[in-house]
Amino acid sequence: MTIRVILVDDHPVVRAGLRSVIDAPDHITVVGEASSGEEALAVVDELEPDVVMCDLRLGEGIDGIEVTKRLNARPKKPAVLILTTFDNDAEIVAALNAGAAGYLLKDINPEDISTAIEKASRGETYLPPEISSKVIAAMRNPGPKLTRRERDVVKLLATGASNAQIAQELFVTEATVKSHLVNVFTKLGVDSRSRAIRVAEDQGLV
């Protein structure tokens, strides 16, 4: 039986490279592509693939973790493999908690991509050794601890509040809010407000 795969990445060159690798085995075929999270959901509805190989960060709109979560909430759900350049512990755990069948780095060997797709199509999980070790370490040492005030800042971030609005709500200066955000970004291993909200929510920190 042929395993049907959809590629989700915001870089056309990456998708083209992946397609050439994934289409090599006779029993695996790429049936569609998407350049954004929203487009991925629509393409999955249309083509009903067995496996979705999705980048973690997809530019504007929903990210790979949110795509994974939404697809796993569906009655007829494809397996989702995250393929990314980011090996941050918090994001690995967040992806797996969202229901990802595997977490792969983009320097993975081509034959291992085929193995991951095969396992995912059978309902199994595939994690390279270096990712497995990170997951085990994260389980032994649960995620970063945000202070009460840092949690307050993230909660307000999730409402769409600006730094000025957060400062007004918490009765602090904007400089203090910026300082809290720097600490939150560092602890969560993220580089944007949207990623901070997503990782904090997925890890139950807020």
Q: Radius of gyration over alpha carbons?
A: 18 Å
The termini sit apart by 44 Å
- Please give the largest β-sheet: 5 strands, parallel
Q: How do the strands line up in the largest sheet?
A: 2-1-3-4-5
| CATH-defined architecture of the largest domain | 3-Layer(aba) Sandwich
Q: Uncertain regions: pLDDT < 50 for 5+ in a row?
A: none
- Computed structural class: alpha/beta
Helix content: 40-55%
| E-strand count | 5
User: How would you name the CATH homologous superfamily of the largest domain?
Assistant: Response regulator
Strand-residue proportion = 5-15%
Give the integer mean of the pLDDT values: 89
CATH class of the largest domain: Alpha Beta
* SS summary, helix count: 10
Outline the structure in words.
It contains ten helices and five strands. The protein is an alpha/beta fold. It folds into two domains: 138 residues, Rossmann fold (3-Layer(aba) Sandwich), CATH 3.40.50.2300; 56 residues, Winged helix-like DNA-binding domain superfamily/Winged helix DNA-binding domain (Arc Repressor Mutant, subunit A, Orthogonal Bundle). It has a five-stranded parallel beta sheet, with helices on both faces. It is elongated. The chain starts with a strand and ends with a helix. The mean pLDDT is 89.
A few lines on this structure:
The protein has 206 residues and is an alpha/beta fold.
Q: Which features does this protein show?
A:
Two component transcriptional regulator, LuxR family, WalR-like, 206 residues, DNA binding, 10 helices, 5-stranded parallel β-sheet, Arc Repressor Mutant, subunit A, NreC/VraR/RcsB-like_REC, alpha/beta, 5 strands
